[in-house]
Amino acid sequence: MSIYNDYVQEVVERKGQGLNPKPIDGAELLSEVIAQIKDVNNEHRAESLRLFIYNTLPGTTPAAGAKAQFLKEIILGESVVAEIPTIYAFELLSHMKGGPSIAVLLDLALGNDEAIAKQAAEVLKTQVFLYDADTARLAAAYEAGNSIAKDILESYAKAEFFTKLPEVQEEIKVVTYIAAEGDISTDLLSPGNQAHSRSDRELHGQCMMSPAQQAEIVALKAAHPDASVMLIAEKGTMGVGSSRMSGVNNVALWTGRQASPYIPFVNIAPIVAGTNGISPIFLTTVDVTGGIGIDLQNWVKKTDAEGNVVRNEAGDIVLEQAYSVATGTVLTINTKTKKLYNGDVELKDISKSFTPQKLEFIKAGGSYAIVFGKKIQTFAAQTLGIEAPTVFAPAKEITKEGAGLTAVEKIFNKNAVGVTPGKTLHAGSDVRVKVNIVGSQDTTGLMTAQELESMAATVISPIVDGAYQSGCHTASVWDKKAQANIPKLMKFMNDFGVITARDPKGEYHSMTDVIHKVLNDITIDEWAIIIGGDSHTRMSKGVAFGADSGTVALALATGEASMPIPESVKVTFKGQMKEHMDFRDVVHATQLQMLQQFDGENVFQGRIIEVHIGTLLADQAFTFTDWTAEMKAKASICISQDETLIQSLEIAKSRIQIMIEKGMDNHNQVLQGLIDKANARIEEIRSGAKPALQPDANAKYFAEVVIDLDIIDEPMIADPDVNNADVSKRYTHDVIRDLSYYGNDKKVDLGFVGSCMVHKDDLKIVSQILKNIEAEKGYVSFNAPLVVAAPTYNIIDELKAEGDWEFLQKYSGFEFNDAMPKTAARTEYENIMYLERPGCNLCMGNQEKAEKGDTVLATSTRLFQGRVVEDRDGKKGESLLASTPVVVLSAILGRIPTIEEYKNAVKGINLTKFAPISTK
Questions:
Q1: C-alpha span between 161 and 852 (Å, rounded)
Q2: Which of 20, 283, 428, 505 has the most CB atoms lying inside 10 A of its own CB?
Q3: pLDDT value at position 284?
């Protein structure tokens, strides 16, 4: 009984940490537990029964297979357990969410014992997580004249698994809890440095916010037992930054309700809110759990007697409170009137939180059940040869007569599934779409694997063109946590049919390339829809949506996603870039000029940014699309010229070929298939049969923004503004400042060139600046550390071939070694240049960080509190974001340079340039 004894020892250790026993997912351990249950005299029998019933993970885990088989034995009378009578065994099967449990239920329902078959059928009628093998068995039994199969199919056709669920309660009482003032990053809810524990839900729940805040939530629940705690971002947006299922899971763990008494630490129905609403990606994740997200708009712009917006001395818009949501306020959500009340006082219309589709998610306990339910209903009706009755809310289909289509509307129409024949859909329509490319990253991948197991999926959908599991978020340090988690993740994904960054058998080079860069290469059709487990899934080809681990799992399992077609904002450019400017400065200026043009309102939030940037190749254009996550956009789409798109596809082909040569293709030859598709797309463009995607000339946009390149005269820096007196204005990406703002006395403690925001030319810029300074002074010394992390290995290979890597090596004090990767995170830095392993590095913040309290200048996208750098006593950590030349020069000087110093350092350097297609 060594496995059980080891588990008991772990239970003791967890108890010392205030944790319950870890849920069982292994068949070997559960087999020992079952043996102890069968032995009525076993000293561990009572505890084994508890573990079997209440602490075993469902779905397709090996443990679920063992549990389902034992329950089958009990139902058939082959084993007798007094504590688990037949009716209870069926109840336990009903909570196992598919996979082995469905196989067992089908065995019983289609078996020879009529009484058992009828009981099994009643349970099956409540299940929705059936796959092709399961539905094929039902269909075959029905065709053979099996009356039980017919009864089950008739129930499915009526969608009784949904219609017989309790209705959403009309009034939901909530008690407010302000989690923070200003934008709430998902780092607050699920810190990056705790990513290793995300699949251990109870343990990970301990890291949400702070122990003091957790205690306050517990106290609120105790004081208001009839109310749900509503987590609020006061004067901000809830859930910005990364797309974390773990963040929503943690909120649900502390404020929601248990999904099933037999599934430990899986809670649903969290209620979250924000003054400026919920981040689009985070809101999708809330839907996954059957939760509610509310746009409070409880702070509004103050206006004077003439209706003009009032500004303070600093020029910032003054907000005034429309109504209070201070912690401890008891409010009522009415799901029928779709309004928020304080007593009898109506505060806000919240209809957007309770669309017919969202009400279905709430009723079903999450969006997955609806997605699978609709598929089961369709299958059953087709098998029976009848028309499926209308049960679910019909998809909203909006057609605007006389209006053309935006680029994203064209993509959604091309990939739509189940649309009324002949209908052309515009923004606002609800659509099921085929997903072409799927990406899973390594710190959420373990959760994606769990989600796949829980929805009983065992193989990737055949309609997905390609999928990639990255190793970039754990690339910096090969520590014990990574060594335990990553090989297990890679094996699962490899078996599932996904191209993996590391081969579990070690048969090819362990790549750690940044997920977004790889997805940018393997997306070989600008008409594609991409779903990726990270908010920075923003491709320069196609339209890409960052998603939670569950939505990624759903896309892998079904090849589909469901969402409304978002509105678009058109961004065009006029003027000419100054010779000394880098394209990253244009990216920052876009954010700044947009806010100026719309009086401080972020028109990008929750919408698609259609960026007309067609003369930039995919790598360079990705710098813009990547940043749109920080602009709070739902996604972005890049409009490319024909020849530019062809060049980008040729580059993508060469990189996919490298992956093939490393042995990364699978038995389905997915990577070779992508090259074939790229060749076909290139031929379509060259022949004129299907030019590069363009919006219609008469397309309708929510807004149009024109960026004036002529007025961008200095490098621009996104500043977290950590000392702003208004807490809500700290750590946003909206504070964009000219270089001159900092004079020449803003100390920099560390520079970071890396993350998905840089491409090969950025690394060449590092080399060229070093050459310039060496030519001027004869040597290069660093007054602050400079950390350089290329996003991909192919970039390093190309730099080696072109001679730049050798020069970087000359001035580096540390160079990564794949044969001997770091086993511990760096805690202190010298004033040298570090050439780190390709991957996310400091941008992720889960392994490497700057020293506490440092002022960091970085090319990355993350300036949230505690992400790249934590605070120390008496000094806030701050992560300012800038272009590569500004970062490199700042590390050399130990401070932000003057504009004169900057211009001198970049002389003769080929910075990333952009020439707009038109001057409109």
A1: 53
A2: 283
A3: 87
